[in-house]
Amino acid sequence: MAKKKGLPDSDPSVFTASASTITNPTTHPDYSPVKLSFDIWACFYRDHLKFETNALKPLEEIWQDPEPGLWSISMLPGISQNATVAAMHQMGIDAGLYADNLDVAIPYHDRDPNQTGPYLIQVRARQEADKDNENRSADDLKEQGIQGITSPERLILEAVFYLATEGASINERHLDVQNITLCAGSHGLGGAVPRVFWSLYSRRVRVYWFGTGSRLAFLRSRSVVS
Predict the structure, then answer these.
(1) Which in 1, 57, 117, 120 has the greatest CB count within 10 A?
(2) C-alpha span between 131 and 222 (Å, rounded)
(3) CB contact at 8 A, 163 and 43
(4) What is the largest CA-CA distance in the chain?
């Protein structure tokens, strides 16, 4: 997988996708053709999270162009759930949260760039969370050795997906409009597992929680595949 070097210009028009490139989810219920490129990630960190040039260097070092059907998620030191939500608000994305301070309410993550340094994971390129994981609780996934996405990863993926789909309809710009991502890689103070989805009714990203044993057909983790 080739690394992409060099930060892009600030003009987002050079890399945003048009609405015509987004496959109708009713005809393609799983795969999403939306491309989350290096340029998109660099734009989000620089222009929305306000990372300085030096803080962005690790992005160049860890970046890998994903194989077809996958998305890369880049996590850099300095990122936080609160900062991502604040950036989303500035981008025009409303959020409904079960706690005012997500970093305090959800402090435990299987991966944390602020503890171990920058990293990149890959998940399946799907607008909806993995159907493979329906009716699998966080306890089930742990027992089966399946790594799930963390809440910081899911939130930043939401923001980058929104940025990449400029020009599309509102429900095509968000993840999990029909299902819910179980962020099995994170746990709250009481041990509960956060869940994230786009509410069609309130038109906001919702962050709430479930117990570690909760199983539902529409409650699905996004598996880390590499």
Answers:
(1) 120
(2) 9
(3) yes
(4) 46
